[in-house]
Amino acid sequence: MPDPLVATDAMRQYSMYGLIAYFSGKLWSVAILFVFLHTGLAARLRDEVLRKHDKLIVQVAALYTCIALSVLALYLPVHFAGDFLLERAFGFQQESLFTWLSGYVINGVLDVIPAILLLTIAFAAVRRWPQNWGLVLFGMGAPLILVASAFSGYFFDLIPFEYKPLDAGPLRTRLERLAEKAGLKDVPILVEEASQETKKVNASTIGVGSSVRIIIFDNAIANMKEDEIEMMVAHEIGHHQMGDFWTRNCLSIAELLVLLLGAQFLAPYAVRRFPLQWGIKKVDDIAIIPAGLLAASIISFLLLPVNGAINKYFESRADDYALNLTGDGAAMARMLSTYARLNLEEPDPPALVQLWFSRHPSVRARVERALYWQKSHSP
Question: What is the pTM for the complete model shown?
């Protein structure tokens, strides 16, 4: 096995501290929401909001904004340690403290607006269709997932200061030939100015049809060889050409259906069993918002192995596509080794970590698969 696949101390430490940061953040956010419920604070805020406002959207906006901004402020120390300090300690974080903090606050505040609209629609549906609100919300949400995803590629054309066309030269020519070979003629190849934020490397393929965009981190162009970048892009093209975009969307829609129908069925029973001090009276009570957020956090954690297993399957398929497209298993092995070294990705993490948290097969497994492919296809 090549030396780059031997886990370094830095890789192990980065993985360990990353897990500590994840669990610390998860437990802290759960604790904040539980305090809102157990102290009756959410119920008291609801009473105050209902006393002053009659319109549902204003009631939801007032209550959710109080909760969201409180969580944003209380979560800051944990996120600062897990995102800024950890990434800075291992040489990844490139933003100044002011820039990072500004981004945290701005993104947190902006996230409040769509959340208010979605919650308002949800409560309105529960009140208007008390027996079938899960199906109604599913009927609204499924098309939104498809439309938003289908047009996602155009988003990158709106921020040219961060995404720029790859400069003309040997690499661009090589990648254009690769894309044309895969059936993606004239697809835009964009460079993301990721070095302003991080030193990590990555690439992706976004959108469908005329909105398809190939995106490469500028760090990858600066630190990887051309055949490694080509293989990384071939892998991302594989996701597109194998239909992973639509398959993932269909799975997201199926997951949405299960969750909404499950919520519709279980919510009335849950409300009756909530502790009295929570002060939640019925399913369409806006004081239920922290309970919903709490349930979503727990469910998302429990679904990690399921979603991870599905994603590992997609990643393996994309690897196979890239190998067949380029015919170069050795380049795939080198790319994965370089990727792991630059991103401090542990090549062979513990089994439980790989099962629960990893969204890709281990680097070691992927390299061995690539080298086996190379050997089996050599003359």
Answer: 0.89
